[in-house]
Design a protein that fits this description.
With 346 residues, the chain is α/β, with parallel strands linked by helices. Helices cover 23% and strands 29% of the residues.
């Protein structure tokens, strides 16, 4: 397939739990009806969950196409995981707009540099990079002194103060002072709640522009068996390996001072919703996302700021959950709690 026109592309970044996925879902729900949008999602952990939480409205009929890159910063290891996923997504979707969500612990500058590579010059039309921030966190040094958080602010073309309905005037004053300190106070700043980013924010010009494409050139996507450098692709992912019936696996990762622990459960294992709520109510982890198959249907869970949201999903191939925290001890006893939530094995 040939890409005949560079695709307007926005990066949606922000730290853990700031509401990136919610914001992207809002943008997808309000996109022009006649347009095809693609989303490339990167997750810190090894188990891809965001794609499943977004998957309900994707497909040719809705004009939404989603692909995941689990396992940390998608631009690490020469950027090959990102190129592989991006090539396939563009081939499948032929989109009018591309949204890229790096992990909240990833490095957006590396994503930008990857998109500026010559082989994407006629494919990617880089537009505004949007950085979501939670003003309530600005007085927390775990955020403001974190190198990734600092970089997210620095690369932003647009800043989005999300969860504004939960913020005080002091929170916004602290945010403004921090932006002055980081020389980012003149960037456009939107105050929103529930990730309701206005479409106009996507149209702000990027300070990280790609070279102007040569209109006489046409870019042909590399074959699926190769990446953009002609190297063989590997399609095996830890969240795609088949599970024996009635079985589950645990996957753990530690990087950049944070630990992720995830579990995948075969679809034959059902979970009790009431017990799941009891489990979530006692959590102290910074971030948890999950998809569970229950006797009542399939449900997605998003836990952040000691608040839990539940949404009903159309389907899931299996149940999965992943938590992230900088204190590994908070995971002690969590697996036993999960297993106690099982309803029955069909």
């Amino acid at each position: 397939m040939k890409i005949t026109k560079a695709v307007p592309t926005n990066i949606i970044t922000g730290f853990l739990g700031v509401g990136k996925t919610t914001a992207i879902l809002h943008l997808l729900a309000n996109k022009p009806a006649n347009e095809r949008w693609a989303v490339l999602v990167n997750e810190f952990g090894e188990i891809g969950i965001d794609g499943g939480l977004m998957a309900g409205g994707q497909g040719a009929q809705t004009g939404v196409f989603i692909r995941e890159v689990p396992g940390g910063c998608m631009c690490c290891v020469s950027g090959l995981p990102m190129q592989m996923a991006l090539n396939r997504l563009l081939m499948a979707a032929n989109p009018d707009r591309l949204l890229i969500e790096p992990t909240g612990l990833g490095h957006p500058q590396e994503v930008i540099e990857s998109l500026n590579q010559p082989h994407y010059a006629t494919v990617i039309d880089l537009r505004a990079t949007l950085t979501l921030v939670d003003p309530r966190r600005i007085r927390d040094s775990r955020y403001t002194q974190n190198a990734t958080f600092i970089q997210q602010i620095a690369v932003a073309d647009v800043l989005v103060a999300n969860k504004s309905d939960q913020c005080t005037d002091d929170d916004f004053s602290s945010l403004n002072a921090y932006l002055v300190e980081k020389a980012s106070h003149e960037k456009p700043l939107y105050r929103v709640s529930f990730g309701e980013i206005p479409f106009a924010a996507l149209l702000v010009p990027s300070a990280h522009t790609t070279p102007k494409p040569d209109p006489s050139r046409r870019f042909t996507m590399p074959a699926l068996s190769q990446n953009a450098f002609g190297q063989p692709e590997s399609t095996e992912r830890s969240d795609h390996k088949p599970l024996p019936e009635g079985d589950y696996i645990k996957i753990k990762k530690h990087a950049d001072g944070f630990t992720s622990v995830g579990w995948r459960f075969h679809a034959s294992i059902l979970f009790d919703r009431g017990r799941l709520f009891e489990l979530f109510s006692g959590l102290t982890l910074q971030r948890v996302k999950a998809i569970f198959i229950t006797p009542d249907g399939v449900f997605g869970y998003n836990f952040s700021d000691q608040a839990l949201t539940e949404v009903e999903l159309d389907e899931a191939q299996e149940s999965c959950i992943e938590g992230i925290d900088n204190d590994v001890t908070v995971f002690e006893g969590f697996e036993a709690g999960l297993l106690a939530c099982k309803a029955r094995v069909s």
